[in-house]
């Protein structure tokens, strides 16, 4: 009896073996499924995080393009910067760059002694412009604002630089005509204004700049007041 019992314990019957295997297999499959589920969650989280990051970076670039009038970012060339600076010779006062991009014009003007300001809708470009101004040591003479140009008044500036597109030039021409003083000078890059006649032009091709002095465009003249002495009656 003891031998039969011992053999039975050492060599379980086929039915007992099948039951044991049946109990173990689901457990292994459960562990494998759990591992696959964890990997799936990690992959989903990684893809989701990447998409959110791409959205955060791309939105400031894409959003302006969804507006009625698009002002895309196209970096100014070295020749354009030199042409702008040439047209600013013998000028003084404050300067604003409408659509300042990465701040090249503003920084170059600040190095020439101007108190220069840039308005740009793309926050990434504004932050980069501030960094460049700090790196070049002109951050005290420059300011960069995240703003829509149509919501800003330019009445306090005497020098205006514009990198525009044809679709926006008529409306911007009217806006500047209404806001700027007679002593203002406007420098348009790449595209001229439709109605104003430029007082100066320099450069060629995409590097051409057109200069408009509102004093001449408006026919502003300095008139001296004649004072007639009062006569005693």
TrEMBL record:
UniProt region (Disordered), positions on chain: 16-35
GO cellular component: mitochondrial membrane
UniProt cross-references to InterPro entries, sorted A to Z: FAM173A/B (IPR026170), SAM-dependent_MTases_sf (IPR029063)
GO biological process entries: methylation; positive regulation of sensory perception of pain; regulation of mitochondrial ATP synthesis coupled proton transport
Membrane topology: Single-pass membrane protein
Transmembrane segments: 39-58
Main localization, broad class: mitochondrion
Subcellular localization: Mitochondrion membrane
Alphabetic keyword roster: Membrane, Methyltransferase, Mitochondrion, S-adenosyl-L-methionine, Transferase, Transmembrane, Transmembrane helix
The keyword Methyltransferase is annotated on this UniProt entry: yes
Single GO molecular function: protein-lysine N-methyltransferase activity
Family: Belongs to the ANT/ATPSC lysine N-methyltransferase family.
Name of the protein in its database record: ATP synthase subunit C lysine N-methyltransferase
Organism: Origma solitaria
Biological classification of the source: Eukaryota, Metazoa, Chordata, Craniata, Vertebrata
């Amino acid at each position: 009896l003891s031998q039969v019992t011992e053999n039975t314990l050492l060599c379980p019957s086929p039915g007992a073996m099948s039951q044991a295997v049946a109990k173990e297999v689901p457990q292994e499959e459960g562990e494998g499924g759990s591992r696959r589920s964890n990997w799936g969650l990690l992959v989903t989280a990684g893809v989701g995080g990447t998409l959110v990051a791409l959205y955060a970076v791309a939105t400031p670039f894409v959003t302006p393009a969804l507006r009625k009038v698009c002002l895309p970012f196209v970096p100014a060339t070295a020749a354009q910067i030199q042409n702008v600076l040439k047209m600013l010779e013998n000028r003084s006062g404050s300067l604003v760059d409408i659509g300042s991009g990465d701040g090249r014009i503003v920084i170059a003007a600040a190095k020439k002694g101007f108190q220069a300001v840039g308005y740009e809708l793309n926050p990434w470009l504004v932050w980069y412009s501030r960094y460049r101004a700090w790196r070049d040591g002109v951050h005290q003479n420059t300011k960069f604002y995240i703003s829509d140009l149509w919501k800003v008044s330019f009445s306090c500036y005497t020098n205006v630089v514009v990198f525009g597109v044809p679709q926006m030039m008529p409306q911007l021409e009217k806006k500047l005509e209404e806001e700027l003083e007679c002593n203002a000078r406007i420098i348009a890059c790449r595209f001229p204004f439709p109605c104003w006649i430029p007082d100066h032009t320099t450069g060629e091709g995409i590097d051409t700049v057109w200069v408009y002095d509102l004093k001449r465009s408006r026919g502003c003249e300095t008139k001296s007041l004649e004072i007639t002495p009062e006569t005693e009656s």
